[in-house]
């Protein structure tokens, strides 16, 4: 009896192996059959992969190489890339084996980083520059959620399609919208553009976590790094923001606000990291009723109560909410949301002095006027930059020269902190030989 069992097992094993062999042969022959056609795009895709995930710009520039040998060489490629990042013509044998691996090792698909922005009025160029800065340094794939006024949709689409060769991001365009429940009443109370972000947890119901940024944000280090703060939340934290001010003597909320606000100087909502699953689940303490309210139920009474006392709209409402629920906020340091206030009267963001600026926030329109030339120089350098590796590598030198022309201003005096982290980000991403990933 046992002998029979052994023979059966042996046969099953042999059968399985020959099946695998047959499949891999089939895959190879299919590939060879398809291989004759478009040599160039395949080569571009292959070298994109070999380059470790940077844009096809690199591949498109180099001469076309024979497709198949390259495509099938690097086993680890399929293994580490989610399926959607693979060019359609890269598959066959390697990916067949890889699929078996993926199944048996239960590899998680690469987590996407969700980034949301609300663009109204003249904010197209600024928003595109923000998105570019996110793409240039980031490692994990990005999913953009762009809420824009209808007349901007076509331009966004054109511009983003022209970047689609990068394959490291995907996007969805939305009109400015209110949650379907009570839409009419929301519309009566809330200014659509200004309050859109408050509704993101209710509109993007399928999204677990989200980084919301204003259009006037520039990433000087990978989005991955701020995204990783989500994992540092303790069990009660649901969102993360930076303080509105470091220096109470020039703080706005502590001097002028006619409503409650978080902490000593309030928080700034220009860079807001959210675990929206938790926001949707939480019951919030408040000063309107003794019962705790859900996100979707707290906004309207809050606005009705404070309408006449708030100055900065949605940011004020967030401050009121986290005043009553301080255990739910993760406060990250000012270098993650560096604004002119941190240097126009002298430097007061100590973390940025030490480690450089991580995320630049050019509020008050400083990218577009001459009041803070240091901020404007960073913006223009990134706006002018293409995705070519050469361009990105030389970004640092030309920007440094521009910044040196701004030392007559308070912010320009400490221009080195504007490029400290940027230099490191470029070095990490573009100057090292591509690592096996
Ligand atoms: C990109 O986003 C669209 C939604 O706009 C979605 O349908 C599509 O599946 C996404 N593609 C990938 C590869 O993630
Ligand atoms: C967000 O919170 C939920 C519920 O606590 C958790 O399951 C999820 O992993 C969190 N998301 C991230 C990105 O940490
Ligand atoms: C609004 O501001 C006024 C004047 O400072 C104050 O008396 C009033 O209590 C405030 N309203 C609320 C709801 O806090
Ligand atoms: C999480 O951190 C916040 C802020 O530091 C704190 O107020 C809260 O008590 C912490 N929650 C837990 C469960 O430790
Ligand atoms: C960016 O380009 C504009 C015109 O295209 C030019 O005037 C400006 O000097 C450039 N700025 C930088 C920092 O390269």
UniProtKB/TrEMBL annotation:
Q: Where in the cell is it found?
A: Membrane
Q: Which InterPro entries match?
A: Glyco_trans_8, Glycosyltransferase_8, Nucleotide-diphossugar_trans
Question: Keywords for this entry?
Answer: Glycoprotein, Glycosyltransferase, Membrane, Signal-anchor, Transferase, Transmembrane, Transmembrane helix
What membrane topology is annotated for this entry? Answer: Single-pass type II membrane protein
EC annotation from Swiss-Prot or TrEMBL: 2.4.2.42
Q: Which GO terms describe its cellular component?
A: membrane
Query: EC class of this enzyme?
Result: transferase
Asked if the Swiss-Prot or TrEMBL record annotates the protein with the keyword Endoplasmic reticulum, the reply is no
| Catalytically driven reaction(s) | 3-O-(beta-D-glucosyl)-L-seryl-[EGF-like domain protein] + UDP-alpha-D-xylose = 3-O-[alpha-D-xylosyl-(1->3)-beta-D-glucosyl]-L-seryl-[EGF-like domain protein] + UDP + H(+)
**Primary subcellular site in the record, as a coarse category:** membrane
The record's section on CDD domains has: GT8_like_2
Gene3D superfamilies noted in UniProt? Spore Coat Polysaccharide Biosynthesis Protein SpsA, Chain A (3.90.550.10)
GO BP term, pick one: protein O-linked glycosylation via N-acetyl-galactosamine
Show the GO MF annotations.
Answer: UDP-D-xylose:beta-D-glucoside alpha-1,3-D-xylosyltransferase activity
One Pfam annotation reads Glyco_transf_8
For this chain, the family text in UniProt reads: Belongs to the glycosyltransferase 8 family.
Q: What does this protein do?
A: Glycosyltransferase which elongates the O-linked glucose attached to EGF-like repeats in the extracellular domain of Notch proteins by catalyzing the addition of xylose.
What name does the UniProt record give this protein? Glucoside xylosyltransferase 1
- The organism of origin for this protein: Microcebus murinus
The gene name reads GXYLT1
């Amino acid at each position: 009896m046992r002998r029979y069992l052994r023979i059966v097992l042996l046969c099953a094993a042999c059968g399985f192996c020959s099946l695998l062999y047959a499949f891999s042969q089939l895959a190879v022959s299919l590939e060879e059959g398809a291989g004759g056609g478009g040599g160039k795009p395949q080569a571009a895709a292959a070298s994109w992969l070999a380059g470790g995930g940077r844009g096809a710009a690199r591949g498109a520039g180099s001469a076309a190489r024979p497709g198949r040998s390259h495509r099938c060489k690097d086993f680890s490629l399929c293994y580490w890339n989610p399926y959607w990042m693979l060019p359609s013509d890269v598959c066959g044998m390697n990916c067949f084996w890889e699929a078996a691996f993926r199944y048996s090792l239960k590899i998680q698909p690469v987590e996407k980083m969700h980034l949301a922005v609300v663009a109204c009025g003249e904010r197209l160029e600024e928003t595109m520059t923000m998105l570019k800065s996110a793409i240039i340094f980031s490692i994990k794939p990005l999913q953009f959620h762009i809420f824009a006024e209808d007349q901007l949709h076509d331009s966004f689409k054109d511009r983003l399609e022209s970047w689609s060769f990068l394959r490291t991001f995907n996007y969805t365009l939305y009109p400015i919208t209110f949650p379907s429940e009570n839409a009419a009443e929301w519309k009566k109370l809330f200014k659509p553009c200004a309050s859109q972000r408050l509704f993101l947890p209710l509109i993007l119901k399928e999204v677990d976590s989200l980084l919301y940024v204003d259009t006037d944000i520039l990433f000087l280090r990978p989005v991955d790094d701020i995204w990783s703060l989500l994992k540092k939340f303790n069990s009660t934290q649901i969102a993360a923001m930076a303080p509105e001010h470091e220096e109470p003597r020039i703080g706005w909320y502590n001097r002028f606000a006619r409503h409650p606000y978080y902490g000593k100087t309030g928080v700034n909502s220009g860079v807001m990291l959210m675990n929206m699953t938790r926001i949707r689940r939480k019951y919030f303490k408040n000063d309107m009723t003794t019962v705790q309210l859900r996100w979707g139920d707290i906004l309207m009474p809050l606005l009705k109560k404070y309408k006449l006392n708030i100055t900065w709209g949605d940011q004020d409402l967030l401050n009121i909410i986290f005043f009553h629920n301080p255990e739910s906020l993760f406060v990250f340091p000012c270098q993650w949301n560096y604004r002119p206030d941190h240097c126009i009267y002298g430097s007061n963001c100590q973390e940025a002095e030490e480690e450089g600026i991580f995320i630049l926030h050019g509020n008050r329109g400083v990218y577009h006027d001459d009041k803070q030339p240091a901020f404007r120089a960073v913006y223009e350098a990134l706006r002018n930059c293409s995705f070519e590796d050469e361009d990105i590598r030389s970004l640092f030198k030309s920007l440094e020269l521009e910044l040196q022309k701004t030392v007559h201003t308070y912010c320009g005096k400490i221009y080195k902190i504007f490029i400290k982290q940027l230099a490191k980000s470029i070095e990490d991403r573009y100057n090292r030989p591509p690592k096996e990933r």
